[in-house]
Structures are given as C-alpha cells and as structure tokens.
Write a structure and sequence with these properties.
The chain is an alpha/beta fold. It has 5 helices and 4 strands, in the order E-H-E-H-E-E-H-H-H. The chain is globular.
Length: about 200
C-alpha cells in the first residue's frame, strides 16, 4: 500500500493516512452492506469527497471514516449507542475533541470520528424527505459530518443553525446552486424539530 513515507508503526500497522498527508483531511470510506435485495449501490468515493470538502469548509483537519451499512447493522449500533430500537438513517461518533491549537504539531493524527449511513433507510425515506436518493445520501453525509464537528439539533436554535449550514454546504458542494424543488430537511412526521 502507498502509505505516506511507507513507514510502519511499531505494531506493524501502517501509520494513519493523516500523518504526512498532503491534504489536512482524510476520509476513509467503506461499503459494508450485506448482499441482497435491500442493498443500495453507493459511490463511496463520491461521498468521501463530499465529506472531505465539508470538513475543509468547517476548518477541520484529521481523519474521518464514512461507512455504509445495512439495516441490521445500523439498528444494532442505534440500540448500543443511542438506546433506541430499530434502524435509523445516520449515526455520528465524534472521537478526538481537540482543537487544532491544542495539538503538538501538524503531524499529530487527529481522529475526528465516524459517520455511519444506512442507504436502505435513505432510499425508503427519500421521497418524503430530501426528494431523491442522491439528495438524501448527500444530506445524510453532510448531517453526519456536521455532528462529528460539533453541530447538534437538541434545541430549536441549534436545529435552525444546523439546517442553514447543511443547505449552505449542499448548495456549494452537491447542487452547485439552490436546492431542487421538493427538497426537505425535516421528516413529515417530525413534530419535535428533527429526527436525524
């Protein structure tokens, strides 16, 4: 593998791709959906590029993982980490909570976190949510990355700020302009502000 400097860690593993990398952002993506009828084709590289430009636009550096999983896997993660039953569309797991000025230097790897998306749930909710599967996946990637870097939607002001930021990022890096007619950020049955 072409790891920066081809150096190995003491445990025989390659170093984090963040160390010595040309870009300050690395997004490692994987499609871990199981084969079957519920599997949704995803362009992992495309969604990793979107996640990377969102991180760069947010002024962050470091490494993020973006993983696409099936309903069973996201339901298990949802139960384990959120205490909720059933599958959800996206989960975010922030890791290092350090600011750049707290780091020892530019070669210190920063593990930003993990974003896990369920394309099957995205496909199901897209017609009543973002409109298309493509827009739904883009929204979920942006939403998940924003959670990793500290945005939230616990109260109405945070929800409004996060939605504005999502639209700005989608307009800049997904649509190259205004959102399409029919695009929604809220769920039709959402009475509390946000479910994602």
């Amino acid at each position: 593998p072409a790891w920066p400097g081809n150096a190995m860690k003491g445990n025989g593993e390659p170093p984090s791709p963040t160390v010595g990398a040309v870009s300050a952002v690395t997004v490692v993506g994987a499609d871990e959906q199981q084969p079957g009828d519920a599997r949704v084709d995803v362009d992992v590289d495309r969604w990793c590029r979107l996640a990377a430009v969102v991180l760069e636009d947010e002024g962050r550096r470091g490494e993020l993982t973006l993983t696409f999983v099936d309903r069973d896997e996201i339901a298990a993660l949802n139960a384990e980490h959120m205490g909720k039953d059933g599958p959800t569309d996206v989960l975010s797991f922030p890791l290092d909570a350090l600011d750049d000025d707290e780091l020892d230097g530019p070669d210190v790897p920063v593990l930003l976190g993990d974003v896990v998306v369920c394309p099957d749930v995205a496909r199901e909710q897209a017609p009543d949510h973002a409109g298309t599967l493509d827009d739904e996946l883009a929204l979920l990637v942006v939403h998940g990355v924003l959670h990793v870097v500290g945005h939230d939607h616990i109260d109405p002001d945070e929800t409004a700020a996060m939605r504005v930021r999502e639209l700005e990022l989608l307009a800049s890096y997904h649509w190259d302009g205004r959102p399409p007619a029919g695009f929604r950020q809220d769920h039709l049955d959402d009475t509390s502000g946000d479910q994602s």
